[in-house]
């Protein structure tokens, strides 16, 4: 029998992982932020990471962004130009790889943007780091990325400090996708926005994912956001992954007591 669900089936996960973290642990003093966490991100999928505050979601995303190194553990990206454990890269090499292959959108736009520079300049900065120097190319590519992020081009010379929260997130998205990254990391990208603005920004992200097939990892404490965006989900608690699987499966039939608690709290 054909059901509506069949037409909305999650993208199939058949390939080799694009990004793989294995056995990652990280301590901050007495706090164990991550304990033996492994994660695989497959090409073209959206992986959601959910869990309560302090469960280690953002720390894991920072590891994926090669911003931080773990006490122990490996990270690999299945791209022609990368090999071996990426946590062993020098700071410079990690920065270049990040600039060219990984995009990130933070909850707090101050972390991702220069708030007093123009919005187009913020996007162009990313292209500059990757080596582009021609002014007309920088301007054109910045405009394209802002347009794809559904940012109003009439405001492209305005600095983010003068923009609404939703528009600031669109500038971050434009900056993150300007170089067509292999993976786009989203750390609570709509938390703190009005519900209606949140829905519009999520729509833009979904459209980008659909049209460009961008591989995404989205962190949220909000099950609704994960349900809307993700194909697969990892549930974290106290620095550990307690459950993972296809979103529909995990949310409809949670196996771990903590996931059951999360799902029932939401209902
Ligand atoms: N740079 C740091 N220095 C000290 N402790 C840290 C640091 N970064 C994270 N932690 C601690 O590690 C734990 C995991 O933090 P993390 O921010 O990854 O959790 P989270 O699930 O993203 O939480 P939230 O949703 O509140 O952002 C927390 O106890 C946090 O206080």
From TrEMBL:
SUPFAM superfamilies: P-loop containing nucleoside triphosphate hydrolases
Keywords for this protein: ATP-binding, Nucleotide-binding
Domain ABC transporter residues, every copy: 19-263
PROSITE patterns, A to Z: ABC_TRANSPORTER_1, ABC_TRANSPORTER_2
Keyword ATP-binding part of the UniProt annotation: yes
Top-rank taxon: Bacteria
GO molecular function terms attached to this record: ATP binding
InterPro entries: AAA+_ATPase, ABC_transporter-like_ATP-bd, ABC_transporter-like_CS, P-loop_NTPase, PhnK
Coiled-coil residue windows: none
The keyword ATP-binding is annotated on this UniProt entry: yes
PANTHER family: PHOSPHONATES UTILIZATION ATP-BINDING PROTEIN PHNK-RELATED (PTHR42764:SF1)
Family per similarity comment: Belongs to the ABC transporter superfamily.
Designated name of the protein: ATP-binding cassette domain-containing protein
